[in-house]
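INFO batch 0412 | record 1 of 1 | parsing
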Amino acid sequence: MRHLDATPPERTSLFHGRAIRLPMPSVEAELEFHRNMWRVAEGLERKAEMVADPRASVHEACDQQFERIKTSYETTLERFVGDEYESVAHAYLEGERSDGRAALAGYLSEALWRLQQLYSVSNLTFFPVVLRYPRCCTVNARFVHGQVVENTIQYESPEHSAVCPDESYADIYHGESRWSQKQAAEHLAASAQSIRDRFPDPRETPDDERRAGGIVSVFGRRGSTFTSGLELVEADPDRFDDDVEEPTLVAESSVARCTEREWLPRGAAVL
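INFO prediction complete | emitting tokens
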């Protein structure tokens, strides 16, 4: 994957409290959205398998999940912007372009930049909201400084811990870590199925059953403690009274604001 050279502090103010709206004018466009979300579900399923396996690395499990998310974002960028989305993103951030495709490039490129750091920078959490509406969808790629505890499950990773094997409580710690990973694996597998159920194949599902809805999810790390969470949310099918032909920056939804109140501690910094 290409790496952006720019750092995000200046960019964040452009996208804070914003989401990107993507047109889905046809069944073919819906199908691409469905496939992207199923890639995310596949990443969660694979992560669940690895977290449940005591021989597997939690770090590698997270890397594989990220690769699925990156593929999903890059597929969207290539579809709407083309292979040169990185240079288009720079043009948008430097004020040289202001069109919707350039806004999409800047928005998702920043998300990819932060995703690259997520588990190398402790105390950072990914907190996205994806909503499906009639003829469009929105992606709100939020990040939070700190750990999200509400509505999530936490699990320990000894490979990220300072606990040494010869310490008196090491066996207890490793046993409790394995138990927490087993619980997390069950949660991750259930989350993957929830994504599949929420974003079904448009060729096999009546329109009224896929008209509106979405997910909010969480994953992050604080030290040796990893966090994961996912919840189904409802979307207002009448939110937009127009159709769009290209990506558009929009204000974050009432769903996004609600999840911030319900999931985040007071004073949490949302990026």
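INFO post-check: Residues 9-270 form one domain.
INFO record closed
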